[in-house]
């Protein structure tokens, strides 16, 4: 018996769903403080200073350290108070998850997990949290200034 070689070509299937990604009917909301499509904060986030207390300023300086700066742990409660001072509310979700919601009109939201069994945030985790705040809210070290005692 002889075998014949036959190449079978598959039939092209017509696409019925279109391209993946945003469709014309999708609603996309870009908040003023959210990063742009290129990952950079929008103009509002770049020019707005956040006035905080001396204790909160210390937390944010540890979150966005200079090269020469000594790094150290931060107590969870101190971090939560700093976030509240910067204009967020803190709400416990399930387990160790704590949702921080911005009080301003933008209303951005981010979730951090409370460290356990010890409530201290180590410097590496604090930097990671800072990078997330930079990405979603445009935060950086220069954004935080000391609040006057009179206000």
From TrEMBL:
Which stretches of sequence are listed as region Disordered?
A: 1-42
The molecular function terms of the Gene Ontology recorded here are: mRNA binding
Bias type Basic and acidic residues, positions = 9-18
Which Pfam families does the entry link to? HicA_toxin
Q: What is this protein called?
A: Uncharacterized protein
Q: Which organism is it from?
A: Fusarium oxysporum f. sp. lycopersici (strain 4287 / CBS 123668 / FGSC 9935 / NRRL 34936) (Fusarium vascular wilt of tomato)
